[in-house]
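hey can u run this one w/ glutamic acid bound, need the structure tokens asap thx
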Amino acid sequence: MTQSAKIITRFAPSPSGHLHLGHAYSAKLNYDFARKNGGMFILRIEDIDHLRCKLEYEKSIFEDLHWLGLSWPEPVRRQSEHFDDYQQALSKLREMNLLYPCFCTRKDIKKEIEESSRAPHMPPKMGPEGIIYPGICKKLTQKQIRQKIDDGVPHALRLDMDQALSMIKNPLYWTDLKTGKQKADPALLGDVVLARKDFPTSYHLSVVVDDHLQNITNIIRGQDLYYASHFHRLLQHLLGLKTPIYDHHPLLTTKDGNRLAKRDKSITIKSIRENGVKPDDLDALIQQYL
Ligand code: GLU
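ok here u go:
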């Protein structure tokens, strides 16, 4: 990014439920940062998961954000309309020999982990978000893979992390606005799924492709995605994409320390506005959960 590049931020919700107070906080941080810096704020709809995303929720995202007083350029990018872009990125990684098919079900993975937990010489590998994929399908032979595909066993595509890391000559870095220069540690997440069984991309893949295509300069998102940022830096490098500056904000929690979730109906923006709260009162409300 050059010094003079116009700041572009984005809020990229998935319409898989109504937005809650934490989303309002995140959206406002992005909006205010862009405004303060004479930049632009973009809304993107991350609706690749056709099983969970609903038009009803998408409609309510627009209503909620307008109620908050935010505005953005139209038309809004909806990821479900851009599977070709993600396919191109996957093809590139495939050509680099960095993808392998994974036929595992959750049950297969659970079983493997339970078994390896009982074998003290080979404990399951832990990542910051729990046990990482134990590499079951990485061991399949070409013949076994062909057989499973011929049998119609559904598969996801995973990044071969060891292979990807072996292609990197120098360490990768990214900038976190609060904590400064970070050395990327993408191995933390293991062999991440880049195309799911039920749709041909994943959050990680589509988010880095879109942030690049939309020239996002600053990503402000929740602390829960801090480790994802380490991984996104690797994908950007492999795919030749731009690296934005990141900022990870604290997550809103209830008094008992639980993160706000879309299923908590009481703190959805929809319910807040239906209860007569005014947008100007929102900051005070957010403070109660920070
Ligand atoms: N769709 C993602 C979410 O709602 C966006 C995360 C991000 O900002 O990268 O969590």
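The mean pLDDT is 94. anyway lmk if its weird
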